[in-house]
């Protein structure tokens, strides 16, 4: 009981502090924003721990952060191997192939309005499909190692990216196009100097969506067959062994890699599309 | 017609490629079988055999279509052998998750726009929540909801589906509720409008286009969530469960049919949401 | 059928006994592997005992041990290695009955892979189920002195999904199969029995006990629960014996209970006839000799034994003795 009360008190205190921080001048600074967000995250962990201890939840149902933390620390080599297998080999390879293919395909069909009109509705439709369902098929086709995981990721990210990229290539101002025409710029020049840069905000939007899809795809595919390493493998095996601390450790790594990937793309985006209004401070 | 032509051409090309791929991929098995039987086959003999295998690597389109047709028409739609029934189960789960996701997304967006502390503390975590692969959480959600006494297997599915669908709504709604510009806000404050009034008369109407735009993304996400929820956590009914059973019992046709049923369901849902969006736009006087 | 059920229900009411609720968590999806329980349900055996039984199908991500720990079931169908491993993790599961006498697990290899004896496994890729089902395989490999970490001279382990594709696509030299299920999928796929080599765990002397009924130790202390389980085991075993004798009818009952509607009659009928071979010879009581062999196999020397010490109190005859009187 005392755990529950303690956790609730902590929550209230942290919340009150956050309200004050948010209203203060410190809250407007970058450090302030991070502090508030971090404090909120810590509150969630404390509440979780308090609930688990307060209700005496069995560690094979839901372990508390105090169990998961040490587990992460003590299984770093395993977690690292899983990370390499699933994120680097599976998700990132697939992500890179899918992104490059979408980029190339968008440019390839750029000169053919006919193909664009044909591919866009289909691309839009396919982006909305539950592609995850293809995972067992692709595992059957490409074998159980990371290649099949990368294939799932490629299929998942290709269409959202293609649609975004095609839309981006068409997103130039009349004014800008006219300017290029007065310069008598060639197709390649127009593409490189005007249309590709103009398409970048759209492309990065697509990349951000695709980044989360990539991890989901790679992990789901591991449920349908994998070598004995990988995050999806770890999760499904450890659930069966009641090693819930390991499951949550893997989930934490997944969240961390997902956030890192997202952050990395956002960072590159801010460098590449520094001119776009949304990047202005 | 001018709009349909390109799409039909591309679709035609896809089907042609599909047939070629089916021949190419299924041929290995025919050759292997012939080798095991100690006979040789010519290419002309191989092709028809790749079109009608019981467990093809890639079933040709007509095989999938036939299985789909059988799943829809061969029995009463209330039968558990009917794809319509399983489609309905998935549809129900999707709708529950979708509704839950909308409520959650809108409520959070309102709180975030109203309270700065909510924005600072919740928004970053909402983004991080989407980077957690939901499949990893699915079994956890199932056991935990079991533990707290929720026995209904629809609920965990709806939670997973809501988890994926709330985010697009949240992001769009925050944008939408913030879309009124300073002039408009200033006007209301000269009228002495209260917070509540500003919200009802300005922010809410201004956010509606954003809201409807986000629904299309959210419904697709809700469907993915439902299928992921059906795939590993229960495997009892729904299109996701049929994919799993099809895969497990070596009945690829069942799996493909379920996959296409899911695609058709997705198409239908997006069409309906698009229709609602257009109706709402028309009522709000947005030029078509 | 319906009339019969109503009559049984009325009889229960007449005697004034409240129907007792029992929730059973299966290890896997609805299939003939669990026919006994479905038969006992459909034939009213549970009702005759005054039980109201709910059967929950399992799935790839459902660990029965976790479900029972979370209070989602009173009794679960589980394999002994997973149950003992859970016991070591601090979840005191007790076997109260063992409807499966023999193990149905085996490794099925393509003859063309050149494997003829277990010694040939070295440097080959073998498909294994995980999720708690890997323990028998790991202990067998450690008895063969084959490393499973992928190092040279050992075996490469692949976590196979839920089907036999890795063998058909030649991604693995051997895959795990059950005599009553996956083996026949390989045959159905068009590979002749003569093109296959099989190694049954039972024949290799490394068989571990499969489908048993497990409950939480603390619940057994309660006489009311104990009585409920006695009734449950009695009715379940009646269901099993009925299923053995009427395999086709049992398969049809299973099919009626399959909510995915994707299972086929031919699969289930054949599965039932194969399962009947495994349940034959068990009256429900656990055979201590089988138990000792399972424990010995799991403790067997090797880098990573499944359990570190011989468990105590992991099974009891208290329930089955009373049920079988």
UniProtKB/TrEMBL annotation, chain A:
SUPFAM superfamilies: MetI-like. Residues 98-273 form the ABC transmembrane type-1 domain. Keywords: Cell membrane, Membrane, Transmembrane, Transmembrane helix, Transport. It is a multi-pass membrane protein. Its main location: membrane. GO terms for cellular component: plasma membrane. The chain crosses the membrane at residues 32-48, 87-109, 121-144, 150-169, 202-226, 246-268. The keyword Calcium does not apply. It comes from the Bacteria. The keyword Transcription does not apply. It is found in: Cell membrane. GO terms for biological process: transmembrane transport. This is ABC transporter permease. It comes from Pseudotabrizicola alkalilacus.
From TrEMBL, chain B:
One of its GO terms (cellular component) is plasma membrane. Gene3D superfamilies: MetI-like. It holds the Pfam family BPD_transp_1. Residues 87-277 form the ABC transmembrane type-1 domain. PROSITE patterns: ABC_TM1. Its main location: membrane. This is ABC transporter permease subunit. Belongs to the binding-protein-dependent transport system permease family. CDD domains: TM_PBP2. It is found in: Cell membrane. GO terms for biological process: transmembrane transport. Keywords: Cell membrane, Membrane, Transmembrane, Transmembrane helix, Transport. The chain crosses the membrane at residues 7-25, 95-113, 125-146, 158-177, 210-233, 253-276. It is a multi-pass membrane protein. Signal peptide: none annotated.
TrEMBL record, chain C:
GO terms for molecular function: metal ion binding; transferase activity. The keyword Transferase applies. Pathway: Cofactor biosynthesis; thiamine diphosphate biosynthesis. Residues 32-250 form the SsuA/THI5-like domain. It catalyses: N(6)-(pyridoxal phosphate)-L-lysyl-[4-amino-5-hydroxymethyl-2-methylpyrimidine phosphate synthase] + L-histidyl-[4-amino-5-hydroxymethyl-2-methylpyrimidine phosphate synthase] + 2 Fe(3+) + 4 H2O = L-lysyl-[4-amino-5-hydroxymethyl-2-methylpyrimidine phosphate synthase] + (2S)-2-amino-5-hydroxy-4-oxopentanoyl-[4-amino-5-hydroxymethyl-2-methylpyrimidine phosphate synthase] + 4-amino-2-methyl-5-(phosphooxymethyl)pyrimidine + 3-oxopropanoate + 2 Fe(2+) + 2 H(+). Residues 1-19 form the signal peptide. InterPro entries: NMT1/THI5, SsuA/THI5. Keywords: Iron, Metal-binding, Pyridoxal phosphate, Signal, Thiamine biosynthesis, Transferase. The keyword Signal applies. It comes from the Bacteria. Belongs to the NMT1/THI5 family. Homodimer. Responsible for the formation of the pyrimidine heterocycle in the thiamine biosynthesis pathway. Catalyzes the formation of hydroxymethylpyrimidine phosphate (HMP-P) from histidine and pyridoxal phosphate (PLP). The protein uses PLP and the active site histidine to form HMP-P, generating an inactive enzyme. The enzyme can only undergo a single turnover, which suggests it is a suicide enzyme. This is Thiamine pyrimidine synthase. It comes from Pseudotabrizicola alkalilacus.
